[in-house]
UniProtKB/TrEMBL annotation:
Keywords from the UniProt entry: Hydrolase, Magnesium, Metal-binding, Nucleotide metabolism, Nucleotide-binding
Signal peptide start-end: none
UniProt-listed GO biological process terms: nucleotide metabolic process; purine nucleoside triphosphate catabolic process
Domain of life: Bacteria
Protein name per Swiss-Prot or TrEMBL: dITP/XTP pyrophosphatase
Positions that bind Mg(2+): E41, D70
Reaction(s) this enzyme catalyzes, per UniProt: dITP + H2O = dIMP + diphosphate + H(+); XTP + H2O = XMP + diphosphate + H(+); ITP + H2O = IMP + diphosphate + H(+)
Length: 199
């Protein structure tokens, strides 16, 4: 089976990419399979810049095609924060629970109808000698007052998806993969790659 390398060290993302790519006929490798590679510093000012940075750096190092995901949560009442700082919102140690606690505290006095938010995902595909491709996916929701559910990762337990009537963390992996920002971005990438093949 052909394999695709995703430039991520996030176990939650890795699992999602696996279930999204396996049906498409690709085995998934991540940076967890290359522990010798150092973290790429996310110095970009938006998701797309960071995704390109991660994909191009790792593609150059390995000399093969690499996909990277830069994603996060934009909360309207916080003017789009945590945004690109989602992973390290409560500190450099990337503690999902500490990040959730910080968001809930900042939204303490914000009423339900003003707690709207959006998950965003930029994917970049870099390949030696080719122009880097980028796509974007998003998913709308609302931040609850408390966490619910244990599936998924990151901010999933406080992100309520209206049309499912559940938080992302209450959805099964299959359900999340039908509606998520990441799934939408992968679908778009898929379409572009298919168009290319047809040419
Ligand atoms: O950079 P890599 O190694 O891919 O892993 P990361 O966790 O640092 O990933 P990002 O820099 O893209 O930061 C994304 C953060 O946004 C949050 N996030 C992204 N997608 C999410 C999802 O589907 N569900 C919940 N939280 C998500 C979560 O806190 C992630 O750590
Ligand atoms: Mg990161």
């Amino acid at each position: 089976m052909e394999s695709v390398i995703i430039a991520t060290k996030n176990q939650g993302k890795a699992k999602e990419f696996e279930t999204l790519f396996l049906p498409r006929g690709f085995a998934v490798k991540t940076l967890l399979d290359y522990p010798e590679l150092e973290d790429v510093e996310e110095t970009g000012s938006n998701f797309e810049e960071n995704a390109v940075l991660k994909a191009e750096t790792i593609s150059k190092l390995l000399g093969v095609r690499v996909i990277a995901d830069d994603s996060g949560l934009e909360i309207d009442a916080l003017e789009g924060r945590p945004g690109v700082y989602s992973a390290r919102y409560a500190g450099a140690d990337k503690d999902d629970q500490a990040n959730i606690d910080k968001v809930l505290e900042q939204l303490l006095n914000v009423p339900e109808n003003e707690r709207t938010a959006k998950f965003c995902c930029a994917l970049a595909m870099a390949e030696p000698g080719k122009e880097t491709l980028t796509v974007f996916g998003s998913c709308e929701g609302r931040i609850l007052q408390e966490q619910k559910g244990t599936n998924g990762f990151g901010y999933d337990p406080i992100f309520f998806v209206e049309r499912e009537g559940k938080t992302m963390a209450e959805l099964s992996a299959e359900e999340k993969n039908r509606i998520s920002h990441r799934a939408e971005a992968i679908r778009k990438l898929d379409e572009i790659l298919k168009e290319r093949e047809e040419k």
